[in-house]
From TrEMBL:
PANTHER family the UniProt entry points to: AUXIN EFFLUX CARRIER FAMILY PROTEIN (PTHR36838), TRANSPORTER AUXIN EFFLUX CARRIER EC FAMILY (PTHR36838:SF3)
Keyword Membrane: yes
Membrane disposition: Multi-pass membrane protein
Coiled coil: none
Keywords: Cell membrane, Membrane, Transmembrane, Transmembrane helix, Transport
Subcellular location, record wording: Membrane
Name listed for the protein in its UniProt record: Transporter
Length: 308
């Protein structure tokens, strides 16, 4: 089972890595492919998958959201304290690093491997995680970082800027529409959903290809302590805390637990590196990003071996 799932994933990532490394595809083209995945094919995949879902277990949704939310926020603030007081980072830099410790590459990697591992029935958990990371974690990070850089900025201005950043995202809009259809049991006409079905089929392979191409141009300059701490927070502490909290819940659904743990151990999103460039910590974020991808693949392989 491990080979049948992980081997195609490794091959697609390697193809992206080799294509950029050999000059067949340029870095700008990889960025364009990544934009296509995040703004076109992945929203189509989420909307189509959610619209095809048959039922929504409200109790499971509340349990999942509570456990994942509590674990993520706990790691966020622990990581912030660590980077702020132990490594003496500026507040804005510590916030960006804390975001890297708690947000996953849910769109590119999660949407590619979860249907293979568990099935389409857990897509709504994936959608909820993306909403949580966008509305709560990323909004919290942007608000705190921006307010730290400009303390005189009004709350209303920051709130408007943050909400605008979220609602102009096609992926968020697609998830919200899909969840509304799921809640109200609405089905789009088949002829309308067919193009979305076609687009959704290219989402997973392209996402993995883009990950490989992105990694191709990155170099691990040095393995510093901050990058190691950040990698441990992301791929070890967060999934461990999520799993531990689910053990407390009575009769937690196995598919839900596996979904939450796998999402929690996914590597950091590419947004993390972009934020690193904006806030002047590019070297640290790049190192942590590479380490998180390596450790996440190892952790995922281990979980797949024991669970499936």
């Amino acid at each position: 089972m491990l080979l049948s799932i992980m081997f195609p994933i490794f091959i697609l990532i390697l193809m992206g890595y080799a294509s950029v490394g050999m000059g067949l595809i340029q870095s700008d083209q990889i960025k364009a492919l990544g934009t296509f995945v995040m703004k076109v094919s992945l929203p189509a995949f989420m909307l189509y998958s959610l619209s095809q879902d048959k039922q929504l277990d409200h109790l499971s949704i509340v349990s999942y959201f509570t456990v994942y939310g509590v674990a993520s926020l706990a790691i966020f603030f622990i990581a912030y304290y660590c980077f702020k007081h132990w490594f003496l980072q500026r507040s804005a830099s510590a916030i960006v690093l804390s975001l890297g410790a708690t947000t996953s590459n849910t769109g590119l990697v999660g949407a590619a491997i979860l249907p293979l591992l568990i099935g389409q029935e857990v897509i709504h958990y994936l959608a909820l995680t993306i909403l949580f990371e966008s509305f709560i974690l990323t909004s919290l990070m942007l608000f705190l970082a921006e307010s730290g850089l400009s303390a005189s900025t009004q709350f209303a201005v920051l709130s408007k800027k943050t909400l605008h950043h979220i609602f102009k995202n096609p992926l968020i809009l697609a998830i919200l529409i899909g969840l509304l259809c799921l809640v109200f049991d609405y089905r789009f006409p088949a002829f309308l959903m067919e193009p979305f079905a076609w687009l959704s089929k290219v989402s997973a392979p392209l996402a993995l290809f883009v990950i490989g191409g992105t990694l191709s141009k990155l170099r691990l300059r040095q393995i510093d302590r901050q990058a190691i701490y950040l990698m441990l927070f992301k791929t070890f502490c967060l999934p461990t805390l999520v799993f531990t909290l689910f053990l407390i819940l009575p009769k937690a659904d196995e598919a839900m637990v596996h979904t939450a743990v796998i999402i929690a151990m996914l590597p950091m999103p590419t947004l993390f590196m972009t934020l690193g460039q904006i806030y002047g910590i590019e070297k640290r974020t790049n190192n942590a990003f590479i380490l998180s991808n390596i450790s996440a693949l190892c952790m995922l392989s281990t979980c797949i071996y024991f669970w499936y």
